[in-house]
Amino acid sequence: MPKKIQVLLHGANLQPWQTRGVEQVLTLVVRVEKKTRPSQTDALETAARAVLAILADERSYGEGEWAPAMAAWQDNRIRKITKRARGIEWRRAEALPGITVRGTGVGSLEAVAEVRVFPPTGVDDVPPELFKLQVTGTDFEDTADLPPLEPRVPVLWLSPTLEMSSGKAMAQCGHAAQLAWWALSSAGRKEWAAADFALAVRTAGRAQWQELLATRLPVVQDAGFTEVAPGSRTVIADHPLLTR
Predict the structure, then answer these.
(1) Which of 7, 116, 148, 201 is at 20 to 30 A from 169, Cα to Cα?
(2) 7-136+150-238 CATH pick, 3.40.1490.10, 3.40.640.10, 3.40.630.10, 3.30.300.30
(3) Helices 40-56, 186-194: inter-axial angle, 10-degree rounding
(4) How confident is the model at residue 49 (pLDDT cuts 50, 70, 90)?
(5) Cα–Cα separations (whole angstroms), residue 203 to 37, 68, 104, 108
């Protein structure tokens, strides 16, 4: 059986080859207009799907234009940062190379999440249009009941014991989706892509969380530089094609 997959993000216990060179960061930008805000769950799900979209994009591997940046990033710490934009800031962000993913509106009575993901850059080379965007202000909430989980749809389970801002949780869900993607076979990846990377995000119950931790499913473990304590396990990726 495969070993349980987990990653300690943002710095600790990395091998020497993982710390060489310039640290890379993948930026996610969520659209937050003055009068419309996405729901919490839609933002988290859309962020995870955006990460999967760029991983699967033909520009991200082989001879693709983003392949060198994606390879350098994935060979190091899979660092992600979430920022927000509105109005002209969003339009400027959309003009940069990247992929915009729209949500489903889950958990919302009116708004649909929009998240744009950009190819990784060095932490000191983030385009100015993205660098100046705010990290704060990404605290969302669900304003409608969440639907029942659909059979065989992958679920990213949030820890019930941690409090994270929406922006932090979006990045963590992106990590979990990426770990699941890495763990899947080529056929499994194709199947997920064909389903437009369908997934759900939910908060696990306390007993359920302990049961999930005892499985071999991918789990995100954070180094604790922001918001959570070092070693915190934040999200578990429960994909039906992965070994429990």
Answers:
(1) 148
(2) 3.40.1490.10
(3) 130
(4) very high
(5) 21, 35, 18, 17
